[in-house]
Amino acid sequence: MWEYEHSVETTASAETLWRHWVAIEQWPRWNAGIEKIEVDGPFAVGTVFTMTPPGEEPLRMRLTEVVPGRLFTDEMDAGDFVVRTVHALEPAAPGKTRVIYRTEISGAAADQVGPQIGPAITADFPDVVGALVRLAES
């Protein structure tokens, strides 16, 4: 398995951050790694969305876990490996929220593909989380 985690503390409330997460159609406004996104249902387990990174092919993903106000997990199943990203909110220092993005690549081919694609998938996490935090704090 391949793993990576990035977290940031913010003064934005978990409720405010959560509102930005559940508005999937709005992600391209604050996430430069998304050119286009299409959602096939509500923000709930089982909902599929298709995300197109700039200049790349669309990626079909599915919400596999949703704990309102706290976390959600999306998953891309590539057959012999699965890319799973957990987006979590935790209480931090008084008046602060910790925003966590954690990606795991598992499955039969994870040891081969993880070190190759994992860094590319997660390279923009600091920028994405930073943009989300700036939006939520404004």
Please describe what this structure looks like.
With 138 residues, this protein is of the alpha+beta class. It has a single domain, classed as START domain (Alpha-D-Glucose-1,6-Bisphosphate, Chain A, domain 4), CATH 3.30.530. The protein is built from four helices and seven strands. The protein has a seven-stranded antiparallel β-sheet with strand order 1-7-6-5-4-3-2, covered by helices on one side.
Write out key terms for the chains shown.
seven-stranded antiparallel sheet; 138 residues; Polyketide cyclase / dehydrase and lipid transport; Alpha-D-Glucose-1,6-Bisphosphate, Chain A, domain 4; alpha+beta; 7 strands; START-like_dom_sf
Summarize, please.
By secondary structure, the chain is of the alpha+beta class. It has helices at 14-22, 27-30, 110-122, 125-137, and strands at 2-10, 36-39, 48-52, 59-67, 71-77, 82-91, 97-106. Helix content is 28%, strand content 39%.
